[in-house]
Here is the input.
Amino acid sequence: MNSPTPKPIVVFALHAIALTLLIGFWPTPRNAYPAHFHARANALFERVEPGALRVGAPVERPPDTRLTRERAGRPVWHSQFSVQRIGWWPAAALAALMFATPLSALHRGLALLAGLVLLEAFTLGRIAIEVAYLDLEVARGPGGPVGGPWHLFLRTGSESLTATIPSAAAVFACWMALARPRGRIDPGALLPRARDVPADPPPPTTPD
Here is the structure.
């Protein structure tokens, strides 16, 4: 089976950007994403800490998600953020990169499925850092002792929960690892190259 023709870098970039916008702003899945994410996250939280953590739609919008820690049926703290920003848009960007990369249908499907699973795990990991940080802040109490490196790490993770750079880095890493774009994207070609047309054979020579 012949490998796909490498795609010029500019054509690839324009294709990926257009698909990211098209998928990202697709209203039906974008609007449904938070509720589906909440259901999956709550099922996981119930397994890890039954009755302790809950995510759902906030009373006021935006953002689209409210994370609450409860003890004895009473809220201890809550945090609000947008899972569309940290979950939906990275997934849309990864799908766009996969569709813009010259891949076989099987490779693209498996790579996209694995990438979406990894991105969701990354998103849940960022939320876990937020939980650990707020738990630590509540345990310290007002005027509590200043934390060390662990507290600094958790605070940085909490402050960057909705930052773009971590999400972009995760998308790029998943794409590089799963799509293996080397040899599929031509960084030296800005536009599609003209196909080589065989030259006309020289006219036959006739003896004098």
